[in-house]
Specification:
240 residues; two-stranded antiparallel ribbon; 2 strands
Length: 240
Amino acid sequence: MGHVVQTGGLAVQNFVSAAVGMAVAVALVRGFAATRTGELGNFWADLVRGTVRILLPLSVAGALVLVACGAIQNFSGIHEVGRFIGGPQQWNGGAVASQEAIKELGTNGGGYFNANAAHPFENPNGLSNLFEIFLILVIPFALTRTFGRMTGSVRQGYAILATTLVFWIGFTALMMWTEFAHHGPAFEIAGGATEGKETRFGVGGSSLFAVATTLTSTGAVNSFHSSFTGLGGGITLLGM
């Protein structure tokens, strides 16, 4: 796919998909709130507000951080980057950082390149890896407070937040234990089960990313054994 399809098609879909999920979540909360009118709100208004007031500003800031971390952001064509066994290696440029930001922020998944967030142009280093995990989790966790504020009971929002934290911490601990607790010389030398992992992030970084993407139903991955994934969609309420 060319730059126009990526930026004008898939990136737009990433925004709309996430905004639809947020609008549905807000409508669900209004149902719990049981207002006098019994109305669930205006879907179009919620869609526009979510896109303009939340997704766009956070995506601009996220893209700038990713560029600072080393992600590419250009409209460069295909160019040769070196010669390897079997012939030259060619890579394409692209507006990767801007699409990567809304890909993670909107829990969409997919990626500019086939390798998804395991590709160094999308996820250059350990810092960008942690930042992308933050982007994946920030809106689902924030929606728990939204629930409390809209229903008039912040304590209920905190209760849902505590539940999501228990799920996230528990599954992260379980993942870490299963990935690191291996016996044998190969595992001991490598420091864990590194099959399929991205060596730039290690077992820990890959485990954190895997748990975050699974609990939020995000299609993004940062390891090569499952990097060929399609475009996901929508905000998923973590733990709900």
